[in-house]
Amino acid sequence: MTRVAVLGYGYWGPNVARNFSALSDCELYAVCDPDPVRLEVAKGLYPAIECRTRYQDLLDDDAVDAIAICTPVLTHYEMAKASLLAGKHVLVEKPMTSSVKTSEELVHLAAVRGLTLQVDHTFVYSAPVQAIRGMIDSGSLGDVLYIDSMRINLGLFRSEVGVLWDLAVHDVSIINHLIGQRPIWVSASGAAPYGNFENLAYITLMYPNELIAHVNVNWLSPVKLRSMVIGGSAQMVVYDDLAPSEKLKIYDKGVSIIEDDPAHKNLLVDYRVGSMTAPHLARIEPLKEMCSDYIRAITTSEPPLVDGEAGLEVVRIVAAAAESLKKAGERITLPARVS
Amino acid sequence: MTRVAVLGYGYWGPNVARNFSALSDCELYAVCDPDPVRLEVAKGLYPAIECRTRYQDLLDDDAVDAIAICTPVLTHYEMAKASLLAGKHVLVEKPMTSSVKTSEELVHLAAVRGLTLQVDHTFVYSAPVQAIRGMIDSGSLGDVLYIDSMRINLGLFRSEVGVLWDLAVHDVSIINHLIGQRPIWVSASGAAPYGNFENLAYITLMYPNELIAHVNVNWLSPVKLRSMVIGGSAQMVVYDDLAPSEKLKIYDKGVSIIEDDPAHKNLLVDYRVGSMTAPHLARIEPLKEMCSDYIRAITTSEPPLVDGEAGLEVVRIVAAAAESLKKAGERITLPARVS
Amino acid sequence: MTRVAVLGYGYWGPNVARNFSALSDCELYAVCDPDPVRLEVAKGLYPAIECRTRYQDLLDDDAVDAIAICTPVLTHYEMAKASLLAGKHVLVEKPMTSSVKTSEELVHLAAVRGLTLQVDHTFVYSAPVQAIRGMIDSGSLGDVLYIDSMRINLGLFRSEVGVLWDLAVHDVSIINHLIGQRPIWVSASGAAPYGNFENLAYITLMYPNELIAHVNVNWLSPVKLRSMVIGGSAQMVVYDDLAPSEKLKIYDKGVSIIEDDPAHKNLLVDYRVGSMTAPHLARIEPLKEMCSDYIRAITTSEPPLVDGEAGLEVVRIVAAAAESLKKAGERITLPARVS
Amino acid sequence: MTRVAVLGYGYWGPNVARNFSALSDCELYAVCDPDPVRLEVAKGLYPAIECRTRYQDLLDDDAVDAIAICTPVLTHYEMAKASLLAGKHVLVEKPMTSSVKTSEELVHLAAVRGLTLQVDHTFVYSAPVQAIRGMIDSGSLGDVLYIDSMRINLGLFRSEVGVLWDLAVHDVSIINHLIGQRPIWVSASGAAPYGNFENLAYITLMYPNELIAHVNVNWLSPVKLRSMVIGGSAQMVVYDDLAPSEKLKIYDKGVSIIEDDPAHKNLLVDYRVGSMTAPHLARIEPLKEMCSDYIRAITTSEPPLVDGEAGLEVVRIVAAAAESLKKAGERITLPARVS
Fold first, then answer.
1. Which residues of A are less than 8 Å from B236 in CB distance?
2. Core vs surface per residue D238-272: b (16+ CB within 10 A) or e
3. What DSSP string describes A191-245?
C-alpha cells in the first residue's frame, strides 16, 4: 500500500488528494500546506490524515512513500529535489520546473536513485488525446501534416508567469505526446498589455518531416476556446475539449495531388470530402488515470505515461519559446534528441 | 454616365459585371475575355455590351472611361499599367499586383495622370468591418490591444500562389483598414505539404503601440472558419463572417490592473464581465458598395475607400510576410510611413 | 422535347422557370403573369419565350405540353383543373389546393385523362430526406418510434393562409414520405396574436404502430430553426436543414428494456451510447431534381416521386389539422387508406 | 437557529444537505435514509449529524424544526403530512405529491397549523428565470404571446412515473412562475415505446389572454436540449439552460400590424429586427437560494417564493395533462382560480 503525501492544498491539491484518497491501492497519508486553515479543510474531509505546515517534516517521515507536489511552479525544483534526495517518489504539477537545467537535474536524480518521477500533464491522460494518439499510431490519419491548437479565454492572470508557462504547457505536452518527437526549432511572439508577463502568445514548432505545429494562447479573449485541429494526409481531426459531447470529430477529408507540373505551373488537386464521425469516448476522469498511473509506476518500477523525460521535453520547448519571445521571435533550434 | 469595361469573365468577373450593370449611374459597356465561350455567356445576359478577346482593343476605344480588372494576379500589373497609360480609370482585383515595385509604379502613374486607382478588397466594404471601424473610431473599444484572425477551410488550391497571396490579403486589408497604420515588422511561418506554395501560414504583425495582430490561413482545414477577435481595453469584439445572423458580438469584458508591484511580484487584476450585444447590421452587399464607390470616386475625383495607396500597403505587408517565410521566420521591418 | 409553360412569375416562378430552362430534355416555352413588368423581366432572361397575361391563352396553345403553376394557393384548383381539361400535364406548387374535395377532383381528372399530376413538395427531393428514407427502408434505424419537427422563424406573414397551410405542409410532406402511411388521427392547437390566421401551431399526428409525429410551426420566433429528430429503436437521426454542412447526424444511441416487471413496478433499462456519424450527402439541388422528375414522369408515363395522390395526402392531413384547430384540438380521425 | 432534518440521502438529498450545512443561519441536524450505507456516507461528511433509518424518529425529536423531503415522489404525501402533523415545517422535492387531492390536503394542513410548506422547484430560483420574470414584470417584453419549452435527452427512465411527472413539472413550474396565472385548459399527447409510462409527451396550455404555452418533453432524444422561447409583443427571449455562458438572449424583434383589412384579405405587417443582447447574469446557485428561502420563510413566517399553493398549481396542471393523455388529448378545463 503506497502512502502518498500531498504538498500544497490550494487550487489543485484538493483534486489530487481526492483522487489518491479514492484509489484502492494507495493511501492518502498526509497533506502539507503553510496555511493552517487549508489544513483544517483537508482534515475535515479526510480525518485520518497527517497534517503538516512544513514539508520537510514529511520527508523525514518513513511512512511516506510518495510525494505529490501541488505548489506554485517556482517551488517545484526545491521540493522535488529534496523529496528525491529523501528517497521519495515524486509527482509534480505541470510544468516540472521553470528551467531546463533544474528539470534535467531532477530527471538525473530520479534515475540515479531508481525513483519514479512523473509530471501531471493531465490532458495526456484524457480520452480524446488517447484516442487521437491511437489514430496516429494505427496510421488511420495518414501522415500528420500539421497541428493547430488554441487555448484562449479571459483570465486568470498569474502573477509569477505568463501564458507560455501557464497555458502553452498544456498544448505542448499534448502535441509532444501525439507526435512522439522533439521539434527542430521553436519560434514565439506575444504581447503583454497588462503586467510583466505575456498575456497572449503565438508559438510555431517545426517537427521533423516538416510537420508544423502552432499554438495560440491568450488570457485576454472574450470567448473561451480549447480546440485542436490535427491535419493528416488521410483523415483530419478536430478536438474541442469544451464540447459537452462529441469532443472529437474525425473528418474523412483530404487532398491528393493529381498532377504537379512545376514547369507549366500546373497544380491539379483532387478533394476528397467524405463523412464525419464523432466516436464514442470512454468516460474516464483524466486526473484519476494520472493518479492511478503514478501508483502503478511506483509499484511496478515501470515508467509512467508522462515521466520525467516527457516533462523535461515540455520544459525544454516552453523555455525555447520564452527565449524566442525575448529575442524578437528568433528561431531557437533544439538539439537533436539522442535516443 | 461612366462606361465600364470588365477584363476577365471567369470566376469573379461575372459578379463585378452584374453589379456595374445594376448601378444606375454607370453603364456596363464591354466585357473582355480570351475565351469566346465566356463572352457568349456575358452577351446572353447583357445583349447590349461590346465583347472583345483582346483587352488592348478596349484601351483604344474612346467610349471606355473605366476598367475593372478581374484576371489572374500575375496579369494585373501589365493590364493596369496599360489602362492607366491609355487614360482609363482602374479598378483591380485583390491583390493589386504581386510585388511592391509594380504596385508603387501603378500608384505613381495614377497620381500623375489624375486617374482613379482602386483595389477590390471587398471585405472592407462589408457591414461588420465598417461597424468595427466605427467602434474603434468612436473609442468604444478603448485601446485596441490585439487582433486575431482565422481564415481556414479545405481548398481551393491555386496553382500560381499560396495562401499568403490568396487568403491572407483579405485579413491584412481588413486589419489595415481597422488600425489605419503600417506595421513595424512582419513575421511568418508556414508549410507546403502539397505543391510548391504554402498551404497554411501563420503571420504575426506588430503595429505601433505594441498592438499585435495574428493571421492564421489554411487551405487544408477540415472545417471552415472566417473569424476575427478584436481585443480592446474597454470592449472586445468577435466577428464571425460565416454566422447566418449576429456576425458581430460585442463583449463588455475586460481586465484592469489594480496594483502592479513588480518589486513584490504582485499583479492584482480586476475582471469585468458584462453583457454581450450583437448589433443589427445594415443589409448591404459589399461588392455593390465597392462598385458604387468606384463610380463615385471617378465622378467626384475623390479617393475611393480602398485606393491605390491602401492596395499598395497590403502588397507591402504580404510581400514582407512572404519574404519572412523564405527567411526562416525572420522579422521583416517595414519602413515608417511618411505621411 | 416537352414544352413547359410557367404560370406565375412572382416569388417562386422564376426559380422553376430557371430550372426548366436549364434542363436539356425540355423547353421553357412560355411564362404567364398578369403583371407585364414581371413578364418583361422573364423576357430579358429568356428572350425566346412566349409571354402571356392570361393563362387561358396558353391552354389553347397546342405547342404547350405541360403546365407549372406557381401562383397563390387559392388559384391552384381553377388553373390546374382547366389545364387538365385542356389536356396539359400539371405541376402545381404546394399545397396542391386548399381543400380535400378539390384535390380529389384533380387526382381523379388526371387519372381519367392519363395526364401527369405532380406537386412541388421540394424538400422531398432533397438529399437529407432521401438519405433518411433510405435508412428507414434499409432498416438501419430499426422501428421508427417518433418524429419531432420544428420550422420556426420571424415572418413572412401570408395574408391568405396561416402557418398550417404555409409551413406545416413542408413537415407533413416530409413525414409522409418517410413513413409511407396515413396517420390515424390528427390534432392541432395554435394561436393568432396577429391577423386572422394562426401565427403558430402545434400538430400531433398518430401513425399506425403508435408512431407519433409532432410538428411545431411558428412565424413569430426570434430564431430560425428547421430541424427534425427521427427516433428509431436502433439509431436516431437529427436533420438540421440550416446547417452549412453535416445536415444529418446519425446517433448510434438507444434504449433496451432489460426487465419490465409491471407487478413490481420495475423497469430496468439499458442505454446504448455509441458514435455519431454525419454522412456525406450528394450535392443536389432539390428543385432541379423536382423539375427533372416532372419531365421524366411525362416522358415515361410513370408517376413522379410526389404525384397527385401524395399531394392529396398532405392536403388531407393539413385540412384535418385545420379542422382540429377550429374544434378545440379535437382529434380528427382519418379514414383508413384503401390500397 | 433552525435545525433541519433531511429525509432521503439518495440522488438529490446530498445536494440539499450540503446546502443546508453551508448556510450560516441554520443547522443540518439530521439525515434519514433506510439504507445504512448511505447514512455512513453522510456521517463521513457531517460528523456532527444525527442519523436515522426511520423518519418517524425525527418527527418525535423536538430538536427538529424543519424537514426536507428528498425521497421518491410516491412517498411525499405520507411523509409531508406526518411532518406537518408533528408540527414541523416542510420542504418537499418536486412534484409535491402525485395527486391534486393530496397536495390540497397538505396546503390546507400547513395553513391551519401555521407552518411553512415549500416545494423545491429549483429552476424558479435560477438567475435566468428570475431575469425573465423581471422583464415581464417591467413590461420590457410587451405582452407575452407564447412560451415554447423543450426538455429532451436520452434517459434517465424512472420506473414509477413518466416524463410528465418527471420532466414537465420543471417547465410547468417555470411557466407558471413567469405568467403568474392558471391555464384555462390543458391538452397532452404522448407515446410510450418502452415501459408503462409515457417516454415523450407534448403539452399545450392555454392561459388567459390567449397566451399559449407548449412543452415538449422526451426521454428518447439523441440530443440534449433545455430551451425556452418567450415571444413578447415588444421583445423576445431565448433561454438556453445548457449554454455555458449567455444563457439568455434578448431579441429586439417583433411584428406590427400596419393594416388589417379582412374585407380585402389584406394583412400588412411590419417587421422590426434590431439587436440581440445577452445580459450578464448573477452567478447564483439556485439550490442554495432555494434552501436559503426556506430558512427565511420559517424565520419570518412569510411565504417562500414557491409555497404550497405554487406547488399545488403545478400538480394541478400536470395531473390535468396526465388525464388528457389518457383521454385521447381531450382538453381538460381547469377551474378559474379564486383569488
1. 220-222
2. bbbbeeeebbbbbbebbbeeeeeeeeeeebebeee
3. E-SSSSS-SEEEEEEEETTTEEEEEEEESEEEEEEEEEEEEESS-EEEEETT-SS
Chains with at least 3 CB pairs less than 8 angstroms from chain C: A, B, D
Q: Is C221 on the interface with D (CB under 8 A)?
A: yes
**Which chain B residues in 22-81 lie under 8 Å from chain A, judged by CB atoms?**
none
Per-residue pLDDT of chain D (339 residues; tens, 9 = 90+): 899 999 999 999 999 999 999 998 999 999 999 999 999 999 988 989 999 999 999 999 999 999 999 999 999 999 999 999 999 999 999 999 999 999 999 999 999 999 999 999 999 999 999 999 999 999 999 999 999 999 999 977 776 789 999 999 999 999 999 999 999 999 999 999 988 899 999 999 999 999 999 999 999 999 999 999 999 999 999 999 999 989 999 999 988 777 665 555 556 677 888 999 999 999 899 999 999 999 999 999 999 999 999 999 999 999 999 999 999 899 999 998 875
- Residues of chain B contacting D280 with CB distance shorter than 8 Å: 252, 273-275
Helix axes D13-22, D36-45, angle to 10 degrees: 30
What CA–CA distance (Å, rounded) separates B63 from B49? 12
Give the architecture-level CATH label for domain B124-284+317-333: 2-Layer Sandwich (3.30)
Find out whether B92 and B260 touch, Cβ atoms under 8 Å: no
Beta bridge partners of A238: A229, A249
Taking CB atoms and an 8 Å cut-off, how many pairs form between chains B and C? 7
CATH of the domain spanning D2-121+287-303, picked from 3.40.50.720, 1.10.10.350, 1.10.3720.10, 3.20.20.70: 3.40.50.720
Write the pLDDT tens digit of every residue in C246-264: 999 999 998 877 766 555 5
Residues of B in contact with C224 (CB under 8 A): 244-245
Pairing of strands D66-69, A248-261: unpaired
Q: What is the topology classification, in CATH, of domain B2-115?
A: Rossmann fold (3.40.50)
Question: Which of D98, D198, D214, D261 to mutate: most C Cβ within 10 Å?
Answer: D214
Choose which CATH entry (3.30.2010.10, 3.10.180.10, 3.30.360.10, 3.40.630.30) describes domain D124-285+317-333.
3.30.360.10
On whether any CB of chain C is under 8 Å from the CB of A279, the answer is yes
As a whole number, mean pLDDT of residues C289-306 equals 98
Residue type at B207 in one-letter notation: Y
Domain ranges of chain C: 2-122+291-307, 124-286+317-333
Distance in Å, alpha carbon of A246 to nearest chain C alpha carbon: 8
CA distance D255 to chain C (A): 8
Residue contact C223–D251, C-beta within 8 A: yes
Band of residue C82 on the pLDDT scale cut at 50, 70, 90? very high
Q: Report the residue from D252, D276, D280 with minimal CB separation from B274.
A: D280
**φ and ψ at D301, to 5 degrees?**
60, 20
- Mean pLDDT over the full length of chain B: 94
CA atoms within 13 A on the CB side of B262: 4
pTM above 0.80, yes or no: yes
Give residues 88 to 107 of C whose Cβ lies within 8 Å of B.
none
Q: Do D277 and B278 touch (CB under 8 A)?
A: yes
Chain C, nearest residue to D330 by Cα: C330
Asked, as a colleague might, if the bond just before B95 is cis with ω within 30 of 0, I would say yes
B242 interaction partners in chain C (CB closer than 8 Å): 244
- Tell me which chain B residues have a C-beta less than 8 angstroms from the C-beta of A236: 220-222
Q: Is C244 on the interface with B (CB under 8 A)?
A: yes
Q: Is A228 exposed, middle or buried (0-12, 13-18, 19+ CB in 10 A)?
A: buried
Provide ipTM, 2 decimals. Answer: 0.92
